[in-house]
Structures are given as structure tokens and as C-alpha cells.
Please model this.
Amino acid sequence: MATSHKRTSSAAGNGTSELPKTKKQTQNTPGSAATSTALQKVYGVQVDNLPMYSDPESGIDKIYSTLEDANNAVRAYVAETYEHAQDPKHGTKADGTVWWSSDDVGEGDGARVFVEIWDVQKPGSVPQQDWADGNLDSSDEQEF
Model:
């Protein structure tokens, strides 16, 4: 019986190398050690009502996770709420947010609708706090 002269790659000194280790993608979950240098942002649709005979009112309509959604929400809000506005103005700021305003949305009242950008604070950015007045303990908590 003839012996084969074929050599395996390990016998030829080409040793099989270990397969490359796959990198695990780190996820930023609460309690994980992974941190990101980029701050997360949220986009709020701000509505300022400027009544002629009373104090101005300001509030946030909704918060969005993308600038595109927030900008579209401003346009939709204006179309649904201020369809009879006189001489409206609108534009886009340098940061990409849109705005709209009118000095007369009916009965002489004015309004502004625009996007504000906020940084989301990372978990643990505020140390644990107790009630500052010192008069409340856990047994004094009340229903809101």
C-alpha cells in the first residue's frame, strides 16, 4: 500500500489560524458602562399664543426624536390651527429648525410656532435628591 505524500496545512507549517473574533456592538442601556460622546437630542414643537387682550401663553405641543418629524409637525399644526392667519411668515433657521408666525390669526391675536432643540441628559446626571423642604418623609407623601 502506497502512502500518500500530501500534507495537511498544519503539517506543512501553515497552521490553521484562529478565526477572527467578532466585535460585539455595545449598547447604551441604563446601567451599562458604555458611554457615547454624542449627546442625544429631542425636538420640541413650541407654540406661543399672543392674545391681544390678555397675557401671552406658551407651551410645548409635542416632542419628537427627529428634526424632520418636528419640522413636519410645525407645518401640520399651522395648517390645522391657523388656516385663516393674515400675512404669515415662515422660514428655516441655521440649525435646520423651521418657524412660522403671524400677527393676526383671528380677532387680532398673534401666534408663533417653531421647533426648539434640547439635549437629553444622560442617566445619573443629577444626583439623588430628597425633598428640599425637610418636612416631608415617605410617610407624608400624598396622591397628586
